[in-house]
Amino acid sequence: MFYEIRTYRLKNGAIPQYLKVVEEEGIEIQKSHLGTLVGYFFSEIGTINEIVHIWAFTSLDDREARRQRLLADPRWQAFLPKIRDLIEVAENKIMKPASFSPQERGALTA
C-alpha cells in the first residue's frame, strides 16, 4: 500500500467554510474516484488553519489512474473553484508503511 498525505494551509479563518463545502459536495466526488479515505483532519493545536487528508492506494499506478479520473470528472472541475482560493499552501507526500505498521498488516484495506 501507498498513502498519499495531502496537507493544505488555509487562509486564516477558512476552515469552517472549507470543511462545509467539502462535506456537502467534494468528498463524495473524491471518494467515487480515489477509493479508500484513511482520514480527513483539521488542526486544533499546533499549526493553525491546516487540513490533512490521507488516501490509500495499492500502487503508484493505481494512484495515478484514480487521480486522472478525478481530474477528468466535470463535477470535480466545477467543485475546485469553491476551495481553490481558500488554500494558501499545499503539500503532498507519498508514504509507504513499514512492515510492522498496522496498515501494512491489513488493518486498512483499499
Features:
4 helices, Alpha-Beta Plaits, 110 residues, alpha+beta, NIPSNAP, four-stranded antiparallel sheet, 39% helix, NIPSNAP family protein, NipSnap_domain, Dimeric_a/b-barrel
Give a description of the structure:
The chain has 110 residues and is α+β, with helices and mostly antiparallel strands. Helix content is 39%, strand content 30%. It has a four-stranded antiparallel beta sheet with strand order 2-3-1-4. The longest helix has 20 residues. The radius of gyration is 14 Å and the shape is globular. The N and C termini lie close together (8 Å).
In short:
The protein has 110 residues and is α+β, with helices and mostly antiparallel strands. Helices cover 39% and strands 30% of the residues. The protein has a 4-stranded antiparallel sheet.
Question: Main β-sheet: number of strands, strand sense, barrel status?
Answer: 4 strands, antiparallel
Number of helices: 4
Please state the average pLDDT score: 92
SSE series: EHEEHHHE
Spatial strand order of the main sheet? 2-3-1-4
How many DSSP-defined strands?
Answer: 4
**Architecture, CATH level 2?**
2-Layer Sandwich
Q: Class, according to the CATH hierarchy?
A: Alpha Beta
What is the molecular shape? globular
Structural class: alpha+beta
Name the poorly predicted regions.
none
Task: Estimate nothing, just give the exact number of structural domains.
Answer: 1
The fraction of residues in strands falls at: 25-35%
The termini sit apart by: 8 Å
